[in-house]
Amino acid sequence: MAxxxxxxxxxxxxxxxAGKAAAVENRARFxxxxxxxxxxxxxxxxxxxxxxxxxxxxx
Length: 59
Description:
Radius of gyration: 24 Å
Structural class: mainly alpha
Largest sheet: none
Helix content: over 70%
Low-confidence stretches: none
Oligomer: single chain
Mean pLDDT: 91
């Protein structure tokens, strides 16, 4: 015979797991330090300047 489970506890456990997965995703998306963000921004700006300087024609 199958094991009897409390459906309310099962529902809450499922919601908790979904919340943990969302938290991992949010940490990856928003959990960067200000120094890391500014470093990436500076690198992108430097790359744009280098590409602009390498143009043959200024249009």
